[in-house]
Amino acid sequence: MPKLLLGILRAALLLILALKIINLFLHFPKEINALLNAAMFTLIGINFILVGSKWDKPIIKIIFSVCGLYLVVMNFFSSTALLNVIGIVCILTPIIIARFSTDKEKLAKAD
Question: CA-to-CA distance for 72 and 58, rounded, in angstroms?
């Protein structure tokens, strides 16, 4: 089940990415662009939460879950510079952890 869910999430993220690229040329209205941004951050957050559950170390699970939860929740607050910086940190932190972790070979075998 989680593999199917991750596959659906990745397909949805690719669709959002394609729509964001199309937006560069067609200039969608602000409401559509805001909806695309909210969907993109929500899907990235859900993806972090699901992928974070595969790690063995509890601290990494917590970091992934907190970052994913923040990315989902930040769509419901008005945007400020501080919240945007925290959002960028929440996107980059799990990526950096996954890149430099020694458990990545074990995670690749689990998939």
Answer: 21
